[in-house]
From TrEMBL:
Location of the protein in the cell: Cell outer membrane
Domain TonB-dependent receptor-like beta-barrel: 348-809
PANTHER family, A to Z: PTHR47234, SECRETIN_TONB SHORT N-TERMINAL DOMAIN-CONTAINING PROTEIN
Provenance organism: Hymenobacter metallilatus
Endpoints of the signal sequence: 1-20
InterPro entries: Beta-barrel_TonB (IPR000531), Beta-barrel_TonB_sf (IPR036942), CarboxyPept-like_regulatory (IPR008969), Plug_dom (IPR012910), Plug_dom_sf (IPR037066), TonB-dep_rcpt-like (IPR039426)
Membrane topology: Multi-pass membrane protein
GO cellular component, one term: cell outer membrane
Stated name of the protein: TonB-dependent receptor
Keywords, comma-separated and alphabetical: Cell outer membrane, Membrane, Receptor, Signal, TonB box, Transmembrane, Transmembrane beta strand, Transport
Length: 852
């Protein structure tokens, strides 16, 4: 016993001596012109030890190794590694354009355009910094709390959306933001969001299929970019850049749980969230070839928030977050063929299984069979989601041009099941578990791009031209017969599996479409201060025709510390194949009463009989005017005002009942109580302002970074369009309740105030987030006003050794909840609908990070 204790003591003493001998490194990072590079990342290689340069380009870092080497990187510049041999360190970073295929910031195809001189507003989020200092584990929730114009809500009581979190940018729909991975289009989810979700009636991209551990940074272009990147980029673009590091092993183990305030039992915590991941990169040869791989596992348990005091009724016995099990593997690689050519391969797979609560069927419910469930039952909707993508491409130089040709394939498959349920029409012989069918979306993209920089044309001209061909497939497949059939219609018993009736053979469909596009864009530096840019894109879709869009942008440096910028663009979004082809009969609960609802596909006999036209593309026009300023050596400010007008938005209409004087007989013939449809029914206008103010100060021997980041947004529905036999019934076609769901995706504001302090091995972060009011409408037609809330997050981190770091903290430290309502009147049957602040209360977490 004494020998291990002695060895441990010697280890602690030697470690302490080594720490005491750590030298303090100081230096300055500048660009090729000798100007300071602000916010450059300086990391001691092989450790968790790092810092960032201030507004004067200087840094201070206490080394933890005997012969430290520093890795220095910044967006728009080529990374460098230098030996820190004592004295003041001076490093000059070269533009990224000096090497083929270096850093490229979204929003520009010029490789020597950094984020600081972009004519469009771009947020660059360093995932290494964010994951160290926050309790969130998945990409959606990470962005929710660091990017003010980004909103993502956890859903419950929303069927498929319980398993895939919808996300929005600048208050528009989830499908109006384009997602790229390493600059290549990411496929969308096959899911259509229904019920009371944000992005109701929209499809979107599932960001959570990509593990945060595989990501180096996320670039958010907060500007319309359809002319540059194509469909879906009305609100902006999110570009996820995968890690390319080599000779570095990073592992993380994370666990967190919620304070279980509202439960039937005495359980103190619930919603336990465990995550473990590993990332490693291998360098291959001397030409920059590498393979970087990530493996990530995440398991999240149910929360239970049904037993809520101060709410007037009880609609459900089980209400809360779904249980999720998620396994991901991702890879990023590059293989040099010569000094001027390389092949790149990246992509990965994600397997997700989930269990989500459906509405309770109480003991006396006519949809219950007491012989099976004498106390009633709580159905559980299960999900089995497969997501995979892969990109292979070649970059090379052809004369003075750089060629990029690639092929990108992606697939998202979503299968439903229902357990702890029954088919009431089968009586006591009913099974209690069913396969309910599902849907799949696939995408294949072939892309060719050419770029060239003419340095002698004024102060520099960058040209880019390219073409793209894309094919998409969508299929909807039926569940097993017992999941949808009524075996005794004469008895009046309900059809199919309770909680989620299976898709029927009449719902099943296979559809595809083709799209071809050509684009050109140019950026001209008229002078060193003045930049002009323009883009033009033509696209043709096989199912609705052609569109031509453009974008113009400018940036002018009034002084060394003040820059003005502005853009104007037109845009479009093609209706997704899922919106065009989705068809289902599902059960909704209105004031606690089950109602059978038909959601009829766009080109079905029902919609054609009602005169609802085929879906067409949404179109937009948008403008952005902003300024960036460095006020002194430690204070920076960006202001960006925007205007976005969208015509012919695809929305989910109100539900028409079987007693409607116009279409009621048609619905009765289909044996449904209500029906709704997808239609280009709304025109909207959004007016907003993004503000980011940051300050860096020396506080004692440490550094304090303070940031205020805010989004102010106002969305107005200008016009509602009706058609066919429903002409003139605007208030019924897309009524106040459905309009409220659209507006709830665009809260009036979100304000984030963050204080981040670092002192040697110790760090602390305090963040206040103000979520503004949201108004929805209950089943009685009365407004439900969710009051503003401020949540507080606290994170403490400490470097236990040079390679090991411990992080502990709490999100929503003071346990704030949304305003409570009668669960009988909400869309989800809980005491609140999903709103942007979340509804699970205080979250405690701990993380252990290792880097070797």
């Amino acid at each position: 016993m004494k020998q291990p204790l002695l060895a441990l003591t010697l280890c602690v003493v030697s470690t302490s001596m080594a720490l005491a001998q750590g030298q303090t490194l100081t230096g300055k990072i500048v660009d090729a012109a000798g100007k300071p590079v602000i916010g450059a990342t300086v990391v001691e290689k092989g450790t968790n030890n790092g810092t960032a340069t201030g507004n004067d380009g200087r840094f201070t870092l206490k080394a933890r190794t005997a012969s430290p080497r520093l890795q220095i990187s910044s967006i728009g510049y080529a990374s460098q590694e230098v030996a820190a041999s004592g004295g003041d360190i001076s490093v000059s970073l070269a533009d990224a354009s000096t090497g083929l295929g270096e850093v490229q910031v979204v929003g520009s195809r010029s490789q020597n355009r950094s984020v600081t001189d972009s004519p469009s507003p771009v947020d660059v989020i360093d995932l290494r910094e964010v994951t160290t200092k926050t309790g969130q584990l998945d990409v959606n929730q990470l962005l929710q709390f660091v990017a003010p114009s980004f909103n993502s809500n956890r859903q419950t009581g929303s069927d498929g959306a319980d398993h895939v979190d919808p996300a929005t940018l600048r208050g528009l729909g989830p499908d109006q933001t384009l997602v790229l991975v390493n600059g290549k289009r990411q496929h969308q989810s096959a899911l259509v969001n229904l019920f009371g979700t944000r992005g109701r009636g929209n499809t979107g991209t599932d960001l959570n299929v990509i593990p945060a551990a595989s990501i180096e940074r996320i670039e958010i272009l907060r500007d319309g970019a359809a002319a540059q990147y194509g469909s879906d980029a009305i609100a902006g673009v999110i570009n996820i850049v995968l890690k390319s590091s080599v000779k570095e092993l990073t592992t993380n183990v994370n666990y967190g749980a919620y304070d279980a305030k509202y439960r039937f039992d005495d359980q103190q915590f619930d919603g336990g969230n465990f995550n473990a991941n590993v990332n490693y990169g291998v360098g291959l040869g001397e030409r920059g070839s590498f393979v970087n791989a990530t493996l990530d596992f995440n398991q999240r348990q149910h929360t239970q928030r049904a037993n809520v005091p101060n709410a007037d009724g009880l609609a459900r016995r089980e209400y809360g977050d779904p249980q999720i099990r998620n396994l991901s593997a991702y890879l990023n690689s590059r293989f040099a063929l010569s000094e001027k050519s390389y092949v790149y391969v990246f992509g990965g797979g994600n397997k997700r299984q989930g269990d989500a609560y459906a509405w309770t069927r109480f003991a006396d419910d006519d949809r219950n069979v007491p012989a099976i469930y004498p106390n009633g039952f709580d159905p559980i909707i299960t999900s089995d989601i497969w997501d995979a993508s892969g990109v292979v491409g070649l970059r090379t130089q052809l004369g003075g041009w750089e060629l990029d040709v690639s092929n990108n394939f992606g697939s998202n498959r979503f299968e439903y099941g229902v357990k702890n349920t029954l088919n009431a029409s089968l009586g006591a012989s009913s099974p209690t578990r069913f396969y309910a069918g599902g849907f799949q979306l696939q995408q294949d993209v072939v892309n060719l791009g050419l770029t060239r920089n003419y340095k002698t044309v004024l102060q520099g001209l960058n040209l880019a031209v390219g073409a793209e061909a894309r094919r998409e497939w969508y299929s909807l497949f039926a569940g097993e017969e017992a999941s949808y059939r009524n075996y005794s219609p004469q008895s009046g018993a309900a059809s199919g599996s309770q909680g989620f009736p299976g898709f029927q053979p009449s719902d099943a469909i296979k559809a595809h479409r083709d799209n071809v596009a050509a684009y050109a864009d140019a950026e001209l530096s008229v002078t060193q201060r003045w930049l002009l840019a323009g883009a033009l894109r033509y696209e043709h879709y096989s199912d609705f025709g052609s569109t031509l869009n453009y974008k113009a942008a400018t940036r002018y440096n009034l002084t060394e510390f003040l820059t003005l910028r502005g853009t104007f663009s037109t845009g479009f979004r093609a209706p997704s194949l899922a919106q065009i082809n989705f068809n289902s009969t599902f059960t909704n609960f209105v004031n606690g009463t089950p109602v059978e609802v038909l959601l009829a596909r766009n080109n079905s006999a029902v919609t054609q009989k009602l005169g609802i036209p085929s879906l067409k593309q949404e179109t937009s026009s948008s403008a952005n005017v902003g300024l960036t300023s460095r006020l002194g050596s430690s204070l920076s400010l960006t202001l960006d005002g925007y205007y976005i007008k969208v015509k012919d938005r695809v929305v989910l209409t109100s539900q028409f009942s079987a007693d409607d004087p116009v279409i009621g007989p048609d619905l009765q013939a289909l044996n449904v109580d209500q029906a709704q449809f997808f239609a280009n029914a709304a025109d909207t206008r959004s007016l907003g302002l993004d503000v980011v103010l940051s300050h860096t100060a020396t506080l004692g021997e440490g550094r304090l970074n303070s940031t205020v980041a805010a989004n102010f947004n106002h969305l107005k529905i200008d016009r509602v369009r009706t058609s066919g036999r429903l002409t003139g019934r605007e208030e019924e076609f897309f009524g106040a309740r459905e309009q409220a769901f659209v507006k709830a995706s665009a809260p009036p504001s979100k304000i984030n105030l963050t204080f981040d302090y670092q002192l040697g091995r110790f760090g602390a972060l305090v963040r206040f987030v103000r979520f503004d009011k949201v108004t929805l409408i209950d089943w009685n037609g009365d407004p439900m006003k969710y009051d503003p809330r401020i949540t507080t997050d606290l994170t403490l981190n400490y470097a236990l050794t040079n390679q090991l770091q411990l992080i502990v903290g709490s999100a929503n430290l003071f346990n704030r909840y949304p305003t409570l309502f009668d669960p009988q009147l909400t869309e989800t049957g809980g005491a609140w609908d999903p709103v942007q602040m979340g509804a699970n209360g205080r979250f405690y977490f701990a993380k252990l990070q290792a880097r070797f």
